[in-house]
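Example record

Each entry pairs one chain with its bound ligand, flavin mononucleotide.
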Amino acid sequence: MRPFEGRRILLGITGGIASYKSVMVARLLAQAGAEVDVVMTRAAQEFVGAITFEAVTGRRVYSEIFGSGNALDHIKIAREASLFVVAPATADFLARAAHGLADDLLSAALLANTSPVLLVPAMNDRMWSNAQTRQNVSHLEQLGYDVVEPEEGPLAVGEGEGPGRMPEPEAIVARIARSLERKGKLASLRILVTAGATREAIDPVRFISNHSTGKMGIAIALAAWRRGAAVTLIAGHVDVPIPGMLSTTRVGDVAQMRDAVAQNLPSTDVLIMAAAPADFRPSSPASQKMKKGKSSESGAIQLTQTDDILKSTIANRKPGSVVVGFALETENLLANSSSKLDGKQLDMIIANSAVEKGAGFGGDTNRVTILSRGGGREDIALMSKTELADVILDRIEALIDGR
Ligand SMILES: Cc1cc2nc3c(=O)[nH]c(=O)nc-3n(C[C@H](O)[C@H](O)[C@H](O)COP(=O)(O)O)c2cc1C
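Structure tokens for the complex follow.
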């Protein structure tokens, strides 16, 4: 699975309680297709056995700097790594790394390493706030290492709560994916993604909406974040959790989504409208809950067209920015998508069917046709929304490249 397939990741484990979570990190990476070389400090082996890491990675675990046959392990494993990760990184390891010590296999390998480095500290909150640790962290960041901020939360039993907790394995794997991919064309661009369904009030307790779950938009936002983009997600109602690393604005109806898009638009390099804003809203929502059996309630709801968010962006787009829309249709998919592409001056439109099996709302897969300005058309095979997110971003990168 991209971006892990065939990549060699050196995963250093140091002697912190959170090392039990690193078993899951190693497992997730191996399952995603990475070759994971685990290097454990002596202290780490007090917490988790090397055999556990061997079992989940299917590879030998490194730990000793001295010993016959190990002579150049610290150079070899560092040279072969695409990324050097230490999770958890103890206060002691951060200090050794900050001072260039090389008194064990992991710290010696770090000195010999030339790949990007991701350090995931985990420790007691007072150790984390200690001035010496702060200084070590800031020095490591100056050296170009990516240091993940520990989370706030319950620490070891009896130690209460505070900053120092290692993020959960899935979040660490997402950071690793980002580090592996961040050199793409989208790195450092500002990307605005909309996702999910809007809700248009009928009365204070009812609304008109649609079946959008937000899965496609969130997959795109996450894939763009992994490529190093500065991503803002504008999310209506979604049925899946929004990953914490995405900077997110929640909105209710089309008017709120339009305003949130307008606010971000002047600084947006790539706008991807994957949300399903309602096309119609009740003309005059009732101020009180509508009641059954009241003579004043006819039962008919008068509808008005909502603002067209994509059309409203034409005048205020950042010069040179890329705008990508989605079209979901029940009939005449390509003809309708093509006129939307022209009418809203889009660079690209992703056409997906609301009726085709495996495509459109709700499921984990999609089958789309990508239409581009100038008449380009590409039929994309049925695939997961996660994979499709990468295909769409590849096409956007190619478009930016070709300019
Ligand atoms: C039960 C226990 C838990 C520990 N947890 C942590 C921890 O979470 N973070 C940390 O920085 N040090 C922790 N330590 C201290 C480290 O294990 C110690 O500093 C050790 O020298 C680190 O060695 P290493 O960096 O080579 O792995 C813990 C020690 C013990 C006994």
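The longest strand covers residues 322-329.
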